[in-house]
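user: can you give me the structure for this one chain? tokens are fine.
assistant: on it. calling the predictor now.
[tool input]
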Amino acid sequence: MTSSHLIAVTTVLGLGLAFTPAAWADPSGDACAALVEARSALYSMISAKDKSAQDALNAKVQAASTKLDSALARMTGADAKLAADFKSVWDQFKATREQEIIPAISKGNADEAKKIADGIQSERLSKMWNIMSCRAR
């Protein structure tokens, strides 16, 4: 997936979610919405040049991640397997974000952060999206 394609997809998904968050009252929908929030804030953080803007966006990333973790924890019964499958990829996604992308941003290396975000993280995003059958509403 090219960088411009990823930005377009993220933008479309973000706009779709902005108009209908109340329609997603179920944990899987909440997980999908939080995933888009976390990814969008992180991508914005890569582009932000100002440290205070980066910090504010990082707070949004962390808040969305907490929402997603809570949504996964609420998934029980038949959805528990789905949540477990999603969580295995999500944990890898978070580890890469915290150990590679955010440190690269902090060091002023936005190109490296973007390379990781557009590479393995994009693949993981697609896997999570498919596992949870997320869709823009």
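assistant: here you go. The chain has six helices and no strands. The first helix runs from residue 3 to 19.
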